[in-house]
Write a structure and sequence with these properties.
By secondary structure, the protein is mostly helical. It has one domain (96-421). It is 75% helix and 0% strand. The longest helix is centred in the last third of the chain and has 37 residues, at 384-420. The N and C termini lie far apart (78 Å). The relative contact order is 0.12.
Length: 421
């Protein structure tokens, strides 16, 4: 059991692990500065993911669990992915002035009502399906068929809600901001999440500051009250789930859980046994094609790793970080598929940004899709499958856009023919 043995090794070599985290942090900050010319940004989640996954690799090399070739494999994939994400984000920020201007043009009332309806609806869903099972896991019901119809709304409205509430705080509409943010936090607490709303708010704050080009405007006293309230909400959440502070410390190490389970393993490809190539690339496409391996929940990357680790599918599992996912699924020349998946994904996200945000002049469409694109970027290095779900959603938006465009063109053509007649 790699996780248990790793925690035991860390307890025996605390200094070595701390040094590994420090070195990983230096590399993370350096990469970020080289590409984005700043030490921290809205891509802080990418930096955090990089630090704890890289620390797991460096520490694994120190205790002789990770050979040099595997370490090279990790750094090639991880750096390629992270630099690619940063480059796309830098491209987006080149248009930040126009995006921020669009943010100031949106109809605040309409956005507030829509987000309130969505967040209250999600709170009810979480209350029924997450609290009903003790709030211990979001995974079980989120893997059911009906939830696939809910997920697209989450991809759009979750990041939008956080960013929009930060914007309202900045422009002085604090009561309105709280009315938007409170249901989001409440829904997150009900879902059984370990206070992930703290990270989401931090990311949204940094993204907003990147967009604005300046810091958030908020009185110091109000800022202190806001921070204290969030901390108390986080403490309540952890207490409700019986999560101790030591367990939270363990969760930082477990950011690199899949990295540990795959890179420390004698058989890193075991979790992908029986999974078709199409399912490895995109499970959704494989399901449409009737692929049995894609329809088997036991073959889902995180579930499969935990089944190997603990002997049973617990319907929970680690995230599919890019390097660990690629090491598990591809070997030799098959790595070309892995790199094609990464750069293909980044190219599709860039194309979507160009088509639906950069070239669009409507403020509403720009602001609705902007948080989605940013979240699709910063979540990808830590979760490959989130990236593939984002591609599915991008395809849905594109097909809808094409259908509407054809319908409008056809109606205009029919009207023109009628007028001529």
């Amino acid at each position: 059991m790699h996780i248990i043995s790793t925690f035991s090794a860390i307890s025996l070599h605390v200094v070595a692990y701390v040094i590994s985290v420090f070195l990983a942090g230096v590399i993370a900050v350096g990469l970020h500065y080289i590409v984005l010319r700043k030490y921290i940004s809205g891509m802080i989640a990418v930096q955090m993911s990089f630090v704890f996954n890289t620390a797991a690799i460096l520490f694994g090399w120190w205790i002789k669990k990770v050979p040099e070739l595997r370490m090279a494999h990790y750094f090639i994939y991880e750096i390629a992915t992270v630099v690619g994400v940063y480059c796309v984000y830098r491209k987006i920020l080149q248009n930040r002035a126009r995006l921020f201007e669009s943010l100031q043009k949106i109809n605040v009332g309409t956005f507030t009502v829509v987000l309130l309806v969505y967040n209250i609806s999600m709170s009810l869903v979480m209350f029924k399906f997450a609290v009903g099972i003790g709030g211990s896991s979001r995974i079980g019901f989120m893997t059911t068929g009906w939830f696939s119809y809910v997920r697209p709304f989450m991809f759009i409205f979750d990041p939008l809600g956080y960013l929009f509430s930060i914007y309202l705080f900045d422009r002085g509409n604090r009561c309105l901001a709280l009315s938007v943010l409170a249901p989001i936090v409440f829904s997150d607490i009900l879902s059984g999440s370990k206070a992930s709303f703290i990270v989401a708010i931090l990311i949204s704050l940094l993204v907003y500051q990147d967009l604005k080009g300046a810091k958030l405007v908020m009185p110091k006293t109000l800022k202190l009250i806001f921070v204290i309230t969030l901390v108390l909400a986080a403490m309540f959440t952890l207490d409700r789930l019986h999560v101790s502070m030591s367990a939270m410390a363990d969760r930082f190490v477990l950011t690199g859980e899949s990295t540990i389970e795959v890179y420390y393993s004698n058989d890193p490809s075991a979790a992908s046994s029986g999974v078709s190539t199409v399912a490895k690339i995109h499970r959704g496409v494989a399901k449409i094609l009737g692929d049995r391996s894609a329809n088997d929940p036991d073959t889902l990357f995180g579930f499969a790793l935990n089944r190997l680790e603990y002997g049973v599918n617990t319907l929970t599992g680690p995230n599919a970080t890019i390097p660990s996912y690629m090491l598990c699924n591809y070997s030799g020349w098959e790595n070309l598929i892995g790199f094609a998946s990464i750069f293909g994904y980044l190219a599709i996200v860039t194309w979507f940004y160009e088509l639906f945000i950069y070239r669009r002049r409507q403020a509403t469409s720009q602001i609705v899709f902007f948080p989605f694109v940013v979240s699709a970027l910063y979540k990808f290095p830590q979760e490959y499958n989130f990236g593939m779900s984002s591609i599915t959603l991008i395809c849905m938006f594109t097909l809808a856009f094409v259908w509407i465009s054809v319908a409008i063109t056809a109606s205009q053509g029919a009207k023109s023919a009628y007028d001529t007649a």
